Amino acid sequence: MDKTLRLIVLPTIVATSAVILVGLTLYTAYFGVFPDGIQRSAHLLLVMVMVFTMALQSSLDPESGDHRGPKAILARLWIAMALTGAAVAIGHQLWNFDAINDRYGAITPYEIFFGSMLVVALFDACRRTIGWPIVILASLFLCYGLLGAYLPDPLAHRGYSLKRVASQVYLGGGGIFGTPLGVSATFVTGVVVLGALLEKTGAGQVLMDFATALTGRMRGGPAKAAVVGSSLMGMISGTAVANVLTTGPISIPLMLKSGYRKEAAGAIEAVASTGGQLMPPVMGAAAFIMAEFTETSYLTIAKAAFLPAVIFYAVLLAMVHFEAVKHKIPILRDAESVTDWGSILRNSYLLVPLPVFISMLLNGYSIMLSSFWAVVASTLVSYLNRPLALTPRRMVETCVSAAHAVIPVALACGAAGVIIGIITLTGVGLKFSGLVVALSGGSLPLALVLTMFTCLILGMGLPTAAAYILVATLVAPALVNLGVSLLAAHLFVLYSAMLSSITPPVALAAYAAASISNGNPLKIAVLACQFGMAAFAVPYFFVYDPAILGIDVTWVQIILSFVTAILGGICASAALMGYFKERMNVLQRLLFAATAILFMNSDWRIDLAALVMFTALVFWASRPAILSAETITEPGANRADFIQKGNPK
Predict the structure, then answer these.
(1) Which residues of the chain have pLDDT under 70?
(2) What CA–CA distance (Å, rounded) separates 59 from 72?
């Protein structure tokens, strides 16, 4: 009986829920969304059913331990209770949607109980899929809402009863069923379905083949392929961990084969995959949430994020190159090897859904409708190749794959909704922003450093979407108050929250990379921060030089800002790694660092001075290699011949 339940019944429930989830998303993308309360409630209910069904399936697995013992039975009882509580609480929202709306937030005694059950079930689901950090953080905010009256100033508030907190968190659109969950139920799911289809049809492999072919003959080629491939795959997956698990099995073994250390290979993949969340046109879930928070069109956000994303990857490529120089990583492919561009071009038709998606966005269609037609295009092109054709079975598998990717986003958005509900209720967001401004003394550079540090701390262990929601509510207003534009402020905190994926001690992307490279997760996280350190400077560039965002400026300003930002990133990379063509001395490193700081300024005269310094430093740092190349000119000459001719050095 247990075997039938585990292998047939429960997987069928999961698959059915996944198909309904995807079907509901595609239906509403074409025909229009249901009222917020219905759309979001149905979305969360399906996600909770899948999570607890999979938990029950796991508890019945004989390999998981004593699956018939008292502890396993109690665990299954708890799973059943949590699922029942969630189903009842969310079902009440669905069934009594009109009546609840008519009461304008007034809550009944049994709804307080329902709300409490839903919070407990939601936190348990988060614990199982995302981990403890977001559960602990949301629990602290709940306690703050209930007990904040007993705290000292400036954090104290007048205090709120369980009834008032439950009303804020459970009813209406300001808590669990708020904007973040709405974004997950509409925009995110549609794009995730598109990503799952692209991976299923082989489009992801085409992108990786293209990246490998492009960088195969470069020094450190496999690492550069990981960087390019992750930037391209970010257009599909949009999450750091998913990106690592997609591109990592291809890129990390290649890096290890070419001579990279296990930790270095994992770190490069972790940083490259983290940046994929910033790469338009798809980006990550946080970008869709940003569109709602800033009341800006997604297309505007994608345009603004494009150049910073390119800068991020250009700087990372520089770091990877200097790492290859430092450790003398050889070129993996010889000059005689031939790239099979014909095969790549023949399979490029699998990428047709991406231009469909982009062109529809550019023509003013909604994200949902654009993703719907891109999904249709992906389905149709799959039939051009029989092995890749989306048969009914493969369609169900795609739905399950997409649902698995949606689960952590939806749960994170639900838990983040609890946090936002308490922040809105207590007004602590304004207090926190005021605290940042006060601590910085009104100094923008200090405020930016404090903001980034806060984002890294609050974002540890959280998915980027949840981390962004939290910091956008707490600290982004502080930057706006100091004169930073709304879009630049939100992109700054998004970058900072995103980089928490590689920040120790809780670095989700680093841990995912460690599972592939077999390296030490903490060492990978530390190295990832080193490789990503220059990229940490990218947000400061577009705060001080908003032309990089491409908003209300001329093309000349955009190009100048873009080029100087990349040059500044290269300077910072060289200073950090201590290598250019060869090992640099301390003075050269300090001068490269100073040049990087000069490039951050938006004044063209300072940029010109920085460019002169950069040119001189490049010549100086390259001079030993040039002299070496000029001295050894005879065919077949080597270092031994050189020494024999009386040159001991």
Answers:
(1) 1-2, 64-67, 105, 172, 216-217, 219-220, 233-239, 242, 246, 281-282, 284, 331-340, 461, 506, 534-535, 624-649
(2) 7
Residue type, position 142, single letter: L
Per-residue tokens: 382: 């799959």
The whole-angstrom separation of Cα 366 and Cα 382 is 24
CA proximity to 595, closest of 558, 565, 639: 565
Strand ranges, E, within 502-570 = none
Angle CA 98–103–105, to nearest 5: 110
Q: 217 with 330: CB under 8 angstroms?
A: no
Helices (runs of H) and strands (runs of E) counted in the chain: 32, 0
Q: Is 583 helix (H, G, I), strand (E, B) or coil?
A: strand
- Over 120-161, what HEC string results? HHHHHHHHHHCCHHHHHHHHHHHHHHHHHHHCCCCCCCCCCC
- What sign does the CA torsion over 179, 180, 182, 186 have? positive
Q: Which of 192, 182, 110, 116 is nearest to 417 (CA)?
A: 182
Q: Kindly state the tokens that stand for 454.
A: 């806060």
DSSP per-residue codes, 330-350: PPSS-TT----HHHHHHTGGG
pTM: 0.77
For residues 413, 419, 422 and 425, what is the CA-based torsion angle, rounded to 10 degrees?
A: -50
Nearest residue to 390 via CA among 247, 202, 206: 202
pLDDT of residue 238: 55
Q: What is the token pair recorded at 268?
A: 């490069």
> Residues 353, 359: contact at Cβ < 8 Å?
no
CA-based nearest residue to 322, from 7, 507, 574, 610: 574
Instruction: Fill in the amino acid letter for 419.
Output: I
At 315, list the tokens.
């700087």
User: Is the alpha carbon torsion for 36, 282, 455, 463 positive or negative?
Assistant: positive
Tokens of 572: 């910072």
The CA distance from 7 to 455, in Å, is: 43
User: In the structure encoding, which two tokens stand for residue 612, read together?
Assistant: 């002169």
The single-letter code of the amino acid at 378 is S
Given a contact cutoff of 8 angstroms between Cβ atoms, the answer to whether 15 and 396 are in contact is yes
Cβ neighbours of residue 648 under 8 Å, at least 6 residues apart?
A: none
* Rounded Cα distance, 234 and 243, in Å: 7
The Cα 227–Cα 246 span in angstroms is 13
Residue with tokens 């796991």: 58
Neighbours of 607 (CB within 10 A): 22
Distance of alpha carbon 237 from the chain centroid = 9
C-alpha neighbours within 13 Å on the C-beta side of residue 37: 20
Ranges of each domain in the chain: 2-132, 553-649
Rounded Cα distance between 185 and 174, Å, is 16
Per the structure block, which two tokens stand in for 471?
Answer: 């910091």
Phi, psi of 579 (to 5 degrees): -135, 145
Torsions phi, psi of 458, nearest 5? -70, -25
Helix residue ranges per DSSP H, 32-131? 36-59, 70-95, 97-102, 109-129
Q: What share of the chain is helix, strand, coil (3-state, %, to 5)?
A: 80, 0, 20
Bridge partners of residue 583, in order along the sequence: 579
Which CB contacts under 8 angstroms, 24+ apart, belong to 296-299? 296/486, 296/487, 298/187, 298/361, 298/367, 299/361, 299/362
Structural element, H or E, at residue 26: helix 10-31
- Tokens standing for residue 627: 């002299």
Length of the chain, in residues:
649
Q: Which is nearest to 165 in space by CA: 430, 470, 421? A: 421
